[in-house]
Description:
Layout lengths: L6 E9 L24 H10 L6 E10 L7 H14 L5 E6 L6 H17 L6 E6 L9 H8 L4 E4 L6 E2 L12 E2 L6 E3 L3 E8 L4 E3 L6 H6 L5 E3 L5 H19 L1
Parallel strand pairs: 1-2, 1-9, 2-3, 3-4, 4-5, 6-7
Antiparallel strand pairs: 8-9, 9-10, 10-11
Helix pairs in contact: 1-2
The chain binds iron/sulfur cluster.
Amino acid sequence: xxxxxxxxxxxxxxxxxxxxxxxxxxxxxxxxxxxxxxxxxxxxxxxxxxxxxxxxxxxxxxxxxxxxxxxxxxxxxxxxxxxxxxxxxxxxxxxxxxxxxxxxxxxxxxxxxxxxxxxxxxxxxxxxxxxxxxxxxxxxxxxxxxxxxxxxxxxxxxxxxxxxxxxxxxxxxxxxxxxxxxxxxxxxxxxxxxxxxxxxxxxxxxxxxxxxxxxxxxxxxxxxxxxxxxxxxxxxxxxxxxxxxxxxxxx
Length: 251
Ligand code: SF4
């Protein structure tokens, strides 16, 4: 067994679809687009992540984001199967949803998704669903709220007093405190890299999960790369170099 001094820990956030059934005022993505995630992108990306040289690679959290992920529950099922193929440690999974889509496919998916956690008898493997329930989202109907309350592991986010991210449609909001979003979420120390990979519906990988579709389109290399062209070792070197250069310029 190879022993490594260096660790690369990462979270992967997957943009399951750019479709959404709502049009919230604060949507950080901007205008919705008619495109879903192609599961082959994750397969290719994970196979390349496995080839990182010199680092012990640890995948810790997987987030299914959107758009609205419950427009595509069957894509999420496929993604979980792909992740299991590449990863034998236990992971936490998280889905952020507006909670308004409840059909047979969603019901079956939610039951299977949560039951897998119960059956694993493990505290470390978490399956979380969080409902965005705040002043910007359409309020849930009683029926929708009652459906989600059946599942104790489902969290309700209530962000009535918090600020919004200054991305996408939220840029037009004038009467709320807004937080700027940085180009990347990467922490580099002498031995470790802690990184958030965001896989979008176009098969691109970015280094922050809170970017609008417009900002994603305009993000330059190395803060964006494509899954298919990716040379993971070269890319990590380029990311490190660019971030160190930016930090030196700031000091
Ligand atoms: S904030 Fe979420 S629910 Fe609202 S439009 Fe954007 S993706 Fe859809």
